[in-house]
């Protein structure tokens, strides 16, 4: 049975192993275990029958923007809806915080497009580029694609107001 939950501190080592597994294959960027401990409150984990099956984090970048990071699903559990469920949980979190946009930098833009994201120009996220990407060893040769989902938390304002009489 699949469940999506906030990560616990006891998940950090397993999250690190999962991210390292995919990062070693060039599918995502490495994250030091210390950084995962520090960011554990950002993480969601998927569990299948109690065991860690996947992870992903929502990192708030500013007043209107958050990033989905470190999204990974165990190799033996791919394409069973787990990645989509983790992203949906991150989006729910972003909405509950009143954020307007969620983005990701990814080698798998097609996956994110299936979750409603659109491909974007990375310069739509200058706080990411100038604070973090500049320190990345792949900065000048980055193959990641930016994707974004507009949440429009004020969308209710555009709903027509019912008029009486
Ligand atoms: C990318 C990843 C997280 C997707 O997780 P997953 O659990 O296998 O994907 P899901 O089963 O939730 O897929 C949801 C939908 O996206 C599709 N999809 C999955 N991977 C895809 C890909 N690489 N490209 C395009 N579509 C993809 C699925 O077919 C499914 O489509 P459907 O809704 O029509 O059925 C997973 O493949 C993974 O861990 N990859 C290695 C690490 C990685 O690349 N992380 C992303 C870096 S940001």
Please give a structural write-up.
It is a single chain. The chain is of the alpha+beta class and 165 residues long. The protein is 28% helix and 27% strand. The protein has one domain (2-154): Aminopeptidase. It has five helices and seven strands. The longest helix is centred in the middle third of the chain and has 15 residues, at 82-96. The chain starts with a strand and ends in a 15-residue tail after the last strand. 30% of the residues are buried. Bound molecules: coenzyme A. Coenzyme A is lined by residues 22, 27-28, 71-73, 78-84, 104, 106-108, 110-111, 114.
How many β strands by DSSP?
Answer: 7
Q: Provide a count of the helices.
A: 5
Order of helices and strands: EHHEEEHEHEHE
The major β-sheet equals: 7 strands, mixed
| Oligomeric nature of the chains | single chain
Average pLDDT rating: 91
Bound molecules: coenzyme A
Terminal CA distance reads: 52 Å
Radius of gyration: 17 Å
How would you write the strand order of the largest sheet?
1-2-3-4-5-7-6
Class by SSE composition: alpha+beta
In short:
The chain contains 5 helices and 7 strands, in the order βααβββαβαβαβ. With 165 residues, the chain is α+β, with helices and mostly antiparallel strands. The model has no long low-confidence stretch (mean pLDDT 91).
